[in-house]
Amino acid sequence: MQFVIIRVQLIKLLGDNMERLQKRIAECGVASRRKAEELIAEGRVMVNGKIITEMGYQVTEKDEIKVDGNLITKVETK
Question: Per-residue confidence at 24, pLDDT binned at 50, 70, 90?
Answer without folding.
Answer: very high
